[in-house]
Here is the input.
Amino acid sequence: MKILVCITHVPDTTSKIQFTADNTKFDTTGVQFIIGPYDDYALARAVELRDQTGGKLTVLNVGEAETEPTLRKALAIGADEAIRVNTAPKDSFYVAKQIAHYAADGNYDLILMGRESIDFNGGMVHGMVGELLGMPSFSPVMKLDLNGNLVTMAREIEGGKETLEASLPLIAGCQEPIAEWKIPNMRGIMSARTKPLNVVDTVEVATQAEATTYELPPAKGAVKLIDKDHVGELVKLLKNEAKVL
Amino acid sequence: MSILVYIEQAEGKVKKTSLEAVSFAEALAAKTGEGDVVAIALGTISADELAGIGTAGASKVLHASDSKLDSGVIQAHASAIAQAFTSVGAKTLVLAKSSLGDAVAARLAIKLDAGLVSNVVSLPSTDQGYVVKRSIFTGKAFAETELKTENKILAIKKNSVDLKTNGAQAAVVPFEVSLSDSDFASKITSTERATGEVLLPEADIVVSGGRGMKGPENWGMLEDLAKTLGAATGCSKPVSDIGWRPHHEHVGQTGVKVAPSLYIAIGISGAIQHLAGVNSSKCIVVINKDPEAPFFKAADYGIVGDAFEVVPKLTEALKAEL
Ligand SMILES: Cc1cc2nc3c(=O)[nH]c(=O)nc-3n(C[C@H](O)[C@H](O)[C@H](O)COP(=O)(O)OP(=O)(O)OC[C@H]3O[C@@H](n4cnc5c(N)ncnc54)[C@H](O)[C@@H]3O)c2cc1C
Ligand SMILES: Nc1ncnc2c1ncn2[C@@H]1O[C@H](COP(=O)(O)O)[C@@H](O)[C@H]1O
Here is the structure.
């Protein structure tokens, strides 16, 4: 069984989002980077499946050298080897092409990703890779069990979920509660240092939808407090001032 | 030439977000001169429901009625829409951003060799290149994005378009699609859907509860309030983690992103990960007993007080007023 997990290297969810260079670059000052939360779910499930079936778990990121600590963390959580496709991710299409190029000859049985990255929130790299490799893709997947070649999944639909069956190989964009996030233990952290982290070359791809400039939403005005003994006031404000009732 | 719009349906009913996509496409066509708006609808939907898509701005609805397309079979939907795209000679596909929409649009981007922009919040500007504004960092910022391809796919963030309601009924035309076995790589064995209630992702008003509600037995109070307002109920992540509420009600960075007119947060502290799911709301009301709760900073209106006291009073006041 060969499993590939694709992870993003993204600002911690509590980061203050700011831009520099005339609003053309994300400001990384003081920002902590983490494995994307959805990718972390994918990785956690992949570790469990690898332990269940045996085989090899590869983790991959398309990014420049600064993403290596994030890949090391994935190794500490339980991946067997890490791949860094050495280029800055420019847009989803560009990233999907890099991943598909790397995975094309890999004979992966299962490719797990996050449902979406928390920086650009595209939710599309898995579908693009699926189409590029001619593999079925499913997202957002909240449960994934293997029984030989048979894959049973639960996929979230608006206001509920559907249960479905498919067979390997396939690609899934994952979200909770597919598995519990795993925190690396000491042994994991030690062994991660010696696990292979290979840097691979990129394919040339023209970008299609690259971000050019950024902006922040307008600042929010101060809250209007209403006395708890006069809730009728609130109803009036919602009706006449905010006009939302 | 036409702009094609992918219509999503649930149990035969066209989704409101898809109608928003139709209205967006109509405004876009007016701007770029790309002709009229043609919608493509898949699966079992009544003729009346389909003709109604016209009110939002479509002149024609292609209908592939094969019931195998009723549920979200991603590959099959992507194939069907690609065929419609070619058949109407479209250059632009518009759809609503959703979990199914994303999955289908991504495959279509490759099939159609089209640049895809998701979370689009306004009409493109076409003065200098084709530039689209989209929401990024889970609503914490926007990016101007240049689309360089001839074929284009735009996935529209919900509640970013004024829904048109005065269009004429659309002409409904049967559409033959040819689908192969590989389009049906999966078999859906069961579907669970909350029925009868207002669906959270599409709700215009949301009443949401956090750990401050103390236990699932106290949700009756929130449900009364929600019912009075015709609202959907949501919750914070710990609440669904502990199992007080179902997972699909969890709002935030790792849950549902809502964009209602009114979001009422009760006993929720306002952690940044929760705010990420609600920051597109038009108006936010916070009820919390702690005046220092961070949620007040993101709120338009607030009441400092015990939810168990305030919420029943609020429901009464609303009943008297509405
Ligand atoms: C990577 C990551 C992703 C996350 N994603 C999400 C997400 O998507 N959504 C999400 O919600 N969280 C998410 N979280 C968790 C988030 O950080 C917070 O822990 C969570 O939102 C807190 O939930 P809460 O406000 O219900 O509970 P608490 O923080 O415990 O707050 C309870 C609040 O209730 C108030 N209260 C108590 N009693 C009463 C009363 N009687 N009347 C009125 N008020 C009362 C308290 O003053 C307090 O403000 C995420 C965390 C991480 C690390
Ligand atoms: N630069 C990247 N390197 C590796 N995987 C990525 C990268 N960008 C996105 N992905 C994967 O694709 C998923 C969806 O990303 P997106 O389409 O950007 O929302 C993420 O959750 C990751 O699993």
